[in-house]
Write a structure and sequence with these properties.
The chain is mainly beta and about 60 residues long. About 5% of the residues lie in helices and about 50% in strands. The chain has one domain.
């Protein structure tokens, strides 16, 4: 998926084999490089490696 700066995305991180719950993150792309993408949520920022985003469930929010 191609991410565009300024657009809002919903990212669902499923619980793998680790003992942790599923996580839902909604944020706007504020910075993007070849290696990682930075999203801004309500009160915090979260960065993801681009290869890791390929295995997560990502949808654009209108």
């Amino acid at each position: 998926m191609q991410f565009q700066i300024g657009k809002k995305y919903r990212i669902f991180i499923p619980a793998d084999h680790k003992n942790r719950p599923d996580k839902l993150f909604i944020g706007k792309v504020i910075y993007k490089t070849d290696k990682f993408t930075v999203f801004e949520g309500v009160n915090y920022r979260e960065s993801f490696l681009n290869w890791d985003l390929k295995r997560l469930l990502v949808r654009e929010v209108s």
